[in-house]
Amino acid sequence: MIYLIVFFSSFLFIKLGNRIEKNKKRVIALIFYGIGLLIPAILAGIRDYTIGTDVMVYGNAWFDRAVDSSNLRDYIHWGVISQVGVGYLLLNYLVAIVSDNPHVFYFVLALVINILIFKGVHSCKEYINIDFAMLIFFLLFYNNTLNLLRQSLAIAIIMSGFGYVINKKLFKYIIVVVFAGMTHSTAFLGILIYFIYNIQFSKYRSLVKNGIICALLGCIVLYQWIVSFLVSKGIILSRYGSYSDVQTGGGKMVRICLFCLPAILLFYFVYKKVKKDIWYNFGVMILLFSTFLSVLLFVNSIASRIAMYFDIYYIVLIPVFAKRVNLSTGKNRVLIKNYSQIFLGIFYVFYWWMVYVYQGQAATYPFLLFTK
After folding, report:
1. Non-local CB neighbours of 166 within 8 Å, separated by 6+ positions
2. Which tens digits make up the pLDDT trace of 338-363?
3. Mean of pLDDT values over 83-99
4. Coil, helix or strand at residue 183
5. 36: phi then psi, degrees, rounded to nearest 5
6. Which of 1, 5, 228, 283 is deepest in the core (most CB within 10 A)?
């Protein structure tokens, strides 16, 4: 399958880049990193317009409008009236200056997303294997980026600021969130990540965590009322209220069984190793939000869009947990850690197959080359 070939080719180049960087050869490392990020971007650029539902819904349309637009101001004004994010519009317009081919735009969009995700992952290099983290990203989310164009860009922008979260640089992170919010309105949820991560440094962390749990349970019970209230006040768009009865078939159970539960089990398996770790509270809260929103999918399918801002941190947490797997001591310790990554890699290949091939989510399989 072309997707898996691309994923593992990219993984190998990033792995080589990581090893070279550890030897202080940063320029050469950047070349290997660049190749690793280019490969999946090229695949995105040469795909047929039928790969990813949103390509034909608004992807081609807004790029063509950028090509035909006489000036940026009118184009942005038109987009804002149509509730399309300014950041996404700006990227369209900049690419349209260079080329009138939508495939070039999809290549640039994918490359930007890959670079932003890699920036966020690289900020955690002290704690994880960044090559393994990027492989998890490709297997869990790459196909979605071919479909959810605007939101994928917004999520990648949020992820790129994770280093500011870790280093407690709130002002810089707010700037990142604002820019992401200019790309997709839901991205303002990203501000929660700062407080979820840094709650561990508060003396009131237990009280806050219990409060969040109670609030989440209350949201499940009152979800329909909350959505109706927000729509009536104009806080969220009216179309969100119409998603309440949308059914996603077996996708809901697959998400719970293959996305949430394995991560929870992995966390439980390394619980004692991370209990005093900086990742413990963050892991608990991300798993809690992700699982909570998975339950909400049975009430309202828009919960899956909200969940994406928390789900993306699986690409950090899974490598963090995998690195702490230790079934033995002594010389076998490193070997066990390597096996845990191999096992998880195989599992998430199965997840990718189940979600994107068997269920056909994101409408990206089978892959088709562009014909024009």
Report:
1. 123, 124, 197
2. 688 889 999 999 999 999 999 999 99
3. 93
4. coil
5. -60, -35
6. 283
